Amino acid sequence: MPIRNSSFKKNTGTQSLFGAEPETQPARAAQDAIVAHVDGGARGNPGPAGYGVHIQDAKGETIAELSVYLGHRTNNFAEYSGLLAALEYAVEHGHPRLKAVSDSELIVKQIRGEYKVKSPDLKELYDRARGLIRKLEHFEIRHVMRAQNKDADRLANEAMDRKQ
Fold first, then answer.
1. Residue 15: CB atoms within 10 Å
2. What is the residue-level pLDDT of the chain in tens, covering all 164 positions?
3. What Å distances lie between residue 59 and 32, 63, 132, CA to CA?
4. How many CB atoms lie within 10 A of CB 134?
5. If you count Cβ atoms within 10 Å of the first and of the last residue's Cβ in the chain, which end, N or C, has fewer?
6. What residues have CB less than 8 Å from 8, skipping those under 6 apart?
7. Torsion angle of alpha carbons 59, 60, 65, 71, nearest 10°?
8. Residues 6+ positions from 69 with CB-CB distance below 8 Å
9. What is this structure's pTM?
10. Angle 105-112/120-133 helices, nearest 10 degrees?
């Protein structure tokens, strides 16, 4: 489900974090978006945690893989950290359009505004994510099953394995 910045009009079936305003960019703008598969995990929850991010260009070619050990954290902290890494990558590398894919229903629904963020620790990460999303021309996030997020899951596990 797309979440678009204020320069985009809400399309049928989309939600915006930034309100509905007149469309100034064609809807096709999302076609050249990079795609970031994000995942995070913790063994023990909390426990040794890490995230993985597999980023592809619009043609499906891998342009980056990120895998970071986070220390003793929760799985939700790790999931948000993976999303933040994808957002930071997009902003820092000049990619104004990002499609994020996550197997964390909680993170996806919180970013879409479907669930409230009750945890103070996650609220800080959520606020950082919203700030980065505002720097993009187009952002959308969707939930997939773990089997459809294999590369990010592999990278998250590699991060946790490095510590153990």
1. 15
2. 444 432 322 333 344 444 333 344 545 566 899 999 999 999 999 999 999 999 999 999 999 999 999 999 999 999 999 999 999 999 999 999 999 999 999 999 999 999 999 999 999 999 999 999 999 999 999 999 999 999 999 999 999 998 76
3. 8, 10, 24
4. 12
5. C
6. 2, 16, 21, 23, 24, 25, 27, 29, 137, 138
7. 120
8. 48, 49, 50, 159, 160, 162, 163
9. 0.84
10. 60
Planar angle of CA 19, 80, 27, nearest 5 degrees: 35
- Are 113 and 76 within 8 A, CB to CB? no
Is 3.30.420.10 the CATH classification of the domain at 2-163? yes
The tokens describing 77, both together, are 């902290």
Single-letter residue type at 156: A
